[in-house]
Design brief:
Elements lengths: L8 H19 L4 H8 L3 H13 L3 E6 L10 E5 L3 E9 L3 E8 L4 E8 L7 H21 L2 E10 L2 E2 L5 E5 L4 E5 H8 L23 E6 H12 L9 E6 L3 E7 L2 E3 L30 H4 L1 H7 L4 H7 L5 H11 L3 H25 L3 E4 L2 H20 L6 E3 L6 H16 L7
Parallel strand pairs: 3-6, 6-10, 11-14, 14-15
Antiparallel strand pairs: 1-2, 3-4, 4-5, 7-8, 8-9, 11-12, 12-13
Length: 420
Amino acid sequence: MAAPAPNTQQEMRRRNLARVLHAVADGGPQSRAAVAARIGLTRTAVSTLVDELLGAGLLVELGPGRSGAVGRPGTALALSDGGPCGIGAEIGVDHLAVCAVDLRGEVRARTAMDAANRDSDPGPVLEQLAGLVGEVAHEARGLGLRPAGLAVAVPGLVARGTTTIVQAPNLGWTDLDLGPRLAEKALGGGNAGGSGSGSGGVGAGGTAVCSIDNEANLGALAELWLGGHTPPPDDFVHVSAEIGIGAAIVVDGELLRGTRGFAGELGHVPVRPEGRPCACGGIGCLEQYAGEEAVLRAAGLDPRATAAQHPGPGARIDLLATRAEGGDRAVLGALAEAGSALGTALTGAVNLLDPQTVVLGGALARLAPWLLPSLEHELGRRLAGPPPVSVSRLGADGPLLGAAHSVVRAVLDDPMAHRA
């Protein structure tokens, strides 16, 4: 959907500054003349905008660049590798992770820790997360970066336009507004006290923004921005997994959120109407046949005992992949059943949405070699001309990268709100 036309001179200036930054972000280092040709403004107008962005520390000059025109090449402009950066965080069922991404999209600092977050009290989890955010923000500042905000990926439903987790079954959290808690702990709450605040906190020395989103949504946005598809699809269904299964839908290059922000709950689509009860209150949900614990049970492995023996993010998935590579028949059968269940659930989504492609991300990317045959078979026998299914190259990093890049995109969209 096209953005409304700016109705004031100041709004037009802000819009044009963003257009210049996006042009450099999308096209790489280029001259002022090349930027002017790309966005359809005069060289004089672009030069004025560029000078402002250089002064704000958002662009840098690298040296001679190509303009495509006859004559001496102009100075190449590039996004700054200093200045604002995005801090992304992820609360997983068995881990916490935080990273900092600069305007060029490079991960400049990162940390993670194993954490048993299932059915946990939110307070200690957020204290630990705030400590990790403080570490990464401090490291980023040491590299000449300014944290512009914090975005957090969570495995649960987040009410649209809020920071409230309505339900996160695998964490045991309901009706929890993370915004004020993180503003105090990780962003510093405008004060020097609290974990992650002071000299290392995101909020130190400037205004910070905190946003919370479903991990599947942020994984899909990462796929849209960083997936490396040629050409990038405008319409796709992104399916990912940790303990549960989530999906997100991109239509015309935009995330489809739904009225309440709950679009994409593929894990709770019934695939066996008379099947197993689910933690959500439903019966026969996909998660009960293709989620991590369901696959472990189908392979003859006790989920709790396996989790104790193989703690940490991705450890059980690696175990399943290793056994599948070794030809373990029970694991191969469990993965085939999971792929079939995924295909059944995706059939309804494909019929309803008609996407260009389906992308497997998160833990599903690691298990794709054994899921895809039965998944594609199910789609093929149920659909006339099923869409191609691809595997994300981002894997389990998708939600964390999507979180950090969502902050970076906000800087590109409104650069002067983040000037030095």
